Fold this sequence. Notes:
mainly beta
Amino acid sequence: xxxxxxxxxxxxxxxxxxxxxxxxxxxxxxxxxxxxxxxxxxxxxxxxxxxxxxxxxxx
Length: 59
Ligand SMILES: [Zn+2]
């Protein structure tokens, strides 16, 4: 599933469980945020506009 169509997105929504993930104060591209609900990690891809994607764990 591709969620790159988000526009004017200000909240970070967990791609896995749909919970809102709290943003950090001084968030930067490349930062990793973790969903409080399910532990899914989301990487910040862009700030203006806000884009993010689920971080895939490498095995
Ligand atoms: Zn989640």
